[in-house]
Every structure is written in C-alpha cells, then in structure tokens.
C-alpha cells in the first residue's frame, strides 16, 4: 500500500504565476485521485517485475531452438523466473525483487543468468 | 537640459558628432517595452554610411520566449494559459528539474483551453508512446484514450539526481481546423524511485481536431502528490 493522502497534503495551484488555494471540494478530488493511484502501488510493482522477467526470458529464448540443447541450469532459472509471481505475493517481496544498487543494477540474484 | 542656440543658417552637414548628443537623446523617450514590429526602424552605420534598418531584418532568432516559470515550493499543479495561438504552429518546451514531492512519482501534462482564463481538458483523447531504457533493461510506457499525457513512468524526489527534464517539440494546428489540437514529441530524462536513470523518446497526440478544441495552454501535475520544484521555458517557433 502506498502513501495515503489527506486534504492537508494538497498544495495550492500555480496558475499563470499566481498561487491559487483550492476549494475543499477541489482538494478532495485531488486526494481521491492520488489515493486511487497509491492503492495500486503493489499492482504496478508486479507489472514491473513481469516486464523485467519478460526481457530476461527473451534473452535466452534462442536456447530453445531445435538445433541447440538448453542446459538444465538455464531451464531451472527460466522456471524460477516464471514462478516469481506465485512465489512473491506481497509488496515488500516485490520491493526485494526490484531492489537496485547505487549504479542502478538489479541486486536480487534471481535476475542473474546462471553460468555452468 | 538647457537649450543651445543654433546659429543662423542651421547646422553644417556632418557637423553633429558623438559629443553633441546627450544620452537623453535615447533615455528621454518613451520605452517601447515590447518586441519591435517588423516595420519599426533602427539607425545604423553601414560601413560608415548612416542608414535606417527595419526591425524585420534584425532577425532576433527563430524563437520567441512565451513563458518562463520557475516554481520552488510545493504546488498541486502548474498551469500556463494563453501561450498557444495562431502566431505559431510549433513550440519548444524545455522542462528542467521537475521534482515530485513524493518519491517514485512522475510528471503528467494536460492541455488547457479557453485562453487567459483557461480550464483543463480532461477528456480521454490523449494517446502517447514512450520507448526508452534504464540501467540494464528496456523501459517503455504507453496509453491510448488516456485523460492526460504521461511524461515518465517513475521518478526520484532526491534533487541530487536532477529530477525529470525534457525537451519537447509541440505542434498546434490552429490555422487548420481539420488538424490535431495538439501533438508533441521529444526526449525525457528521469529516474525510478531508487535514482536509476531512465531515458525515453516520447510522442503524443491529443486525438481531437482543432475545430473541436483550441489548445491555448498547458497544465503540469504529478500522478500522485504535489510538485516540489519545476522550471519550464516555452518558446514559439517563428514562421518568418
């Protein structure tokens, strides 16, 4: 669950260089919009995980060609990737999967293609 | 200034030189306080010969500054009205250091209509596609029939990584009623919530004809929460 906003969180609008305070009704409309977005925080993280997974799987799809025998350790890794959604169901687990280091690289070992 | 008596017979040819002119010859006049019209004239020396020069020849560049906004405290959204008109068909928008108040959020853009007292156009006719990359993987986002343009798909509210910046070319077909109310394309730099840099090539269209909607301004806002800081500069691309 993401952040939960209240009307106090809504800052004025800047309209043609002038700050305009919103009415309570306008503030509530913004809060509703923001909270609706925040409520789908976990959903968006799962989509991100699926997107990264798709790229990782596509990178080894060529190994499934008929003229090549896919190594077992690659088969196992690809299955692990496919099982990620069913084995990770909470937002904190999603955060762990999406963690990156200071250089922007994904840090969870599940994303690293194994070598023999 | 005191008046100087002119000798009988007037001033001899070429007799007025720089020491005879006081600065009030310029400062004493009313300031124009706007860009000169094409037929306004300057006095210049053309290789030693004084000539008059129409302002249209000055060619102050192909761009005209229409708006510069530098907001440095929290706002719910930023609106600029009355910047699109028949004077220009194309515009260049530079966005710098757009920092969302909440980590992980990103910048969105809407068209406004109605001139100087504009209103948001929120009907679901916004289409956009962004293709890009972040460290180690591709990153894309797109939508059709959305209620606004998304300019990124994530962001970092740490100012040290510069927030979101963009260079966008915007087109409005005001002079053609069958044209699109607004289209844009350009490049965006942004981050995810962990400071990872992302870049996108982005394009969008407001799928409404100018005969139905006349775009006159823009609105910028965060997908969730306030905008902490944003600077943007909008130029009109001169047609001649």
Question: How are the secondary structure elements laid out?
Answer:
The complex is a heterodimer of chains A (116) and B (240).
Chain A: E1 13-15, E2 18-20, H1 24-38, H2 41-59, H3 72-82, H4 84-87, H5 91-98
Antiparallel strand pairs in A: 1-2
Helix pairs in contact in A: 2-5
Chain B: H1 24-27, E1 41-46, E2 49-54, E3 63-71, E4 77-80, E5 90-100, E6 107-113, E7 119-120, E8 126-134, E9 137-146, E10 149-150, E11 164-171, E12 180-191, E13 197-209, E14 215-222, E15 227-237
Antiparallel strand pairs in B: 1-2, 3-15, 4-14, 5-11, 5-15, 6-7, 6-10, 6-14, 8-9, 8-13, 11-12, 12-13
Radius of gyration of chain A: 22 Å
Structural class of chain B: mainly beta
Instruction: Output the number of helix runs of chain A.
Output: 5
> Strand count, sense and closure of the main sheet of chain A?
2 strands, antiparallel
Main sheet characteristics of chain B: 8 strands, antiparallel
Distance between the termini of chain A: 39 Å
The pair of chains with the biggest contact is: A-B, 29 and 30 residues
Q: Write out the strand line-up for the largest beta sheet of chain A, numbering strands in chain order.
A: 1-2
- Low-pLDDT ranges of chain B: none
| Global shape of chain B | elongated
In whole angstroms, the N-to-C terminal distance of chain B is 43 Å
The chain-level mean pLDDT of chain A equals 92
By DSSP, the count of extended strands of chain A is 2
Strand line-up of the largest beta sheet of chain B: 3-15-5-11-12-13-8-9
The number of helical segments of chain B is 1
The SSE order of chain B reads HEEEEEEEEEEEEEEE
Beta strand count of chain B: 15
Percent strand of chain B: over 45%
Give an overview of the whole structure.
The complex is a heterodimer of chains A (116) and B (240). Chain A is mainly α and 116 residues long. Chain A contains five helices and two strands. Chain A starts with 12 loop residues before the first strand and ends in an 18-residue tail after the last helix. In chain B, the strands form three sheets. In chain B, strands 3-15-5-11-12-13-8-9 form an eight-stranded antiparallel beta sheet, with no helix packed on it. In chain B, strands 4, 6, 7, 10 and 14 form a five-stranded antiparallel beta sheet that branches. A two-stranded antiparallel sheet of chain B has the order 1-2. In chain B, a hairpin with a 2-residue loop joins strand 8 and strand 9. Chains A and B meet through strand 1, helix 1 and helix 2 of A and strand 4 and strand 9 of B. Strand 1 of chain A pairs parallel with strand 4 of chain B, so a sheet runs across the interface.
């Amino acid at each position: 669950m993401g952040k939960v906003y209240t009307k106090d969180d809504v800052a004025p609008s800047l309209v043609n260089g002038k700050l305009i305070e919103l009415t309570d009704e306008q503030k509530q409309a913004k809060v509703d919009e923001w909270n609706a977005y925040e409520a789908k925080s976990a959903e968006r993280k799962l989509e991100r995980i699926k997107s990264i997974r798709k790229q990782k799987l596509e990178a080894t799809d060529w190994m499934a060609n008929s003229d090549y025998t896919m190594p077992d350790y690659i088969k196992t890794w690809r299955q692990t990737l496919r099982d990620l959604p069913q084995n990770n169901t909470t937002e904190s687990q999603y955060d762990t999967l999406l963690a990156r280091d200071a250089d922007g690289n994904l840090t969870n070992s599940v994303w690293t293609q194994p070598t023999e | 200034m005191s008046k100087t008596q002119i000798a009988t017979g007037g001033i001899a040819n070429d007799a007025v030189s720089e020491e005879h002119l006081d600065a009030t010859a310029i400062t004493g006049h009313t300031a124009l306080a706007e860009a000169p019209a094409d037929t306004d004239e300057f006095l210049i020396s053309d290789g030693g010969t004084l000539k008059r020069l129409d302002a249209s020849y000055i060619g102050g560049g192909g761009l005209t500054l229409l708006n510069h906004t530098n907001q440095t405290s929290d706002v719910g959204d930023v609106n600029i009205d009355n910047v699109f008109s028949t004077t220009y068909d194309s515009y260049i928008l530079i966005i710098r250091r757009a920092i969302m108040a909440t980590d992980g959020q990103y910048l969105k853009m809407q068209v406004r209509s109605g001139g100087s007292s504009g209103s948001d156009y929120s009907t679901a006719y916004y289409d956009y596609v962004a293709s890009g990359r972040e460290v180690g993987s591709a990153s894309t986002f797109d939508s059709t029939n959305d209620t606004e343009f998304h300019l990124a798909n994530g962001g970092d509210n740490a100012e040290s990584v510069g927030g979101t910046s963009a260079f966008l070319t915007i087109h409005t077909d005001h002079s053609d009623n069958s044209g699109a109310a607004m289209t844009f394309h350009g490049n965006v730099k942004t981050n995810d919530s962990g400071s990872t840099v992302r870049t996108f090539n982005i394009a969008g269209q407001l799928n409404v004809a100018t005969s139905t909607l006349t775009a006159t301004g823009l609105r910028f806002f965060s997908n969730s929460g306030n905008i902490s800081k944003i600077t943007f500069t909008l130029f009109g691309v001169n047609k001649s």
